[in-house]
Amino acid sequence: MLVGVDIGGTKTHLRAELGKGGESRDLVVPSSDWRTRDWDADAVGLLKLIHQFTQSAEIAALGVGAHGCDDAAECLAFQEALTRHVTHPLSVVNDAELMPLALGLRGQIGVVAGTGSIAVCRPSADRMIVAGGWGWIVSDEGSAASLVREAVRSVTQHLDRGGKVDEPLASAILKALDVTSVPRLGSKLHSFRSAAELGRHALIVFEAAERGSRLALDVIARGGRLLAELPSILDARGAGASHVVAGGSVIAAQPRLWDAFVLGLGDSSPHLTPHLFTGSPVEGACYLASTLIASEGCEALS
Fold first, then answer.
1. Burial 171-203 (b: 16+ CB within 10 A, else e)
2. What's the rounded mean pLDDT across residues 106-114?
3. CA distance 243 to 273
4. Within 13 Å of residue 167, how many CA atoms lie on the same side as its CB?
5. pTM (2 decimals)?
6. What b/e readout covers 24-45, taking b as 16+ CB neighbours within 10 angstroms?
7. How far apart are CA 298 and CA 296, in angstroms?
8. Residue 245 to residues 11, 132, 231, 271, 274: CA-CA distances in angstroms?
9. Domains along the sequence of the chain with CATH
10. Which of 124, 133, 183, 263 might form a disulfide with 118, Cβ 3.0–4.6 angstroms?
11. Closest listed residue to residue 117, CA positions, set 233, 38, 29
């Protein structure tokens, strides 16, 4: 049995691949059900979840992609905490790394644009480089929360210049954020406590673009270009990659953002080939697990 785990900020997706023919089964649970952000406690919690899911069956290898493991030291700390409780091989990477792995592209750049955004590459086993992932207040360009933040900024500048509140993006933002008085728009944004809480309004930016809002179109185009700067930064830092695999709930669902990302990447790093990942990142976790087994073991499972 191979087990892959994709630990996201919101949910955890487990997949067990069993026997000949690739039979698999899945379990999705809220990450808050077990995760505490303490490596040792999380190791115990995750392994308990896996054992319940697999009904204590023997596991050949475990691959884990974890949101919040944002450098090599953090990945190693979680991996070592897990290793203290098991004897089978296992590996922990950042969840952005799962998407290139799902396509069989090892050592390539993974970009997540969902609730937040980040770009990650592992040029070698002992080196992991990261750009972005600082949170929506600071950056996370191209993410759901960042797009809403930039939409609010664009609307406030529009209003400062004498623009009308019936502009499609302006009216949508005021309604969605339940702003009762236009001057309170900035303080309303400040009241949001998390990226997920703010990011759930991102769809209105794309809906306003469909209605012809120039403000919304500019927000999306700028978000895509800034998102494309992340893999370009990694490239300049010696990633040595030739492929960029982007995925996440926002970019996978919104062609305008993907198109802007591709254009931005073409301008900044034309030698990097972009791929849009629309599958489940847990596929990459299972691939990671499979690489931990000797070739003859892989053949036995195929």
1. bbbbebbebeeeeebeebbeebeebbebbebbb
2. 95
3. 5
4. 23
5. 0.90
6. beeeeeebeebbeeebeebbbb
7. 5
8. 21, 15, 10, 14, 6
9. 2-95+280-301 (3.30.420.40), 144-276 (3.30.420.40)
10. 133
11. 233
Q: Any idea what DSSP says for residue 106?
A: T
d(CA 150, CA 138): 12
Can you give the length of the chain in residues?
A: 302
User: By the 8 A CB rule, do 49 and 88 touch?
Assistant: no
Residue 52, SS3? helix
Listed in sequence order, the residues at least 6 apart from 279 whose beta carbon sits closer than 8 Å to its beta carbon are 102, 247
pLDDT digits (tens, 9 = 90+) for 132-159: 999 999 999 999 999 999 999 999 999 9
Amino acid found at 182: V
Helices (H), 113-143: none
pLDDT at 21: 53
Amino acid identity of residue 37, one-letter, is R
Q: Assess contact for 286 and 63: CB atoms under 8 A.
A: yes
Tokens of 154: 């664009």
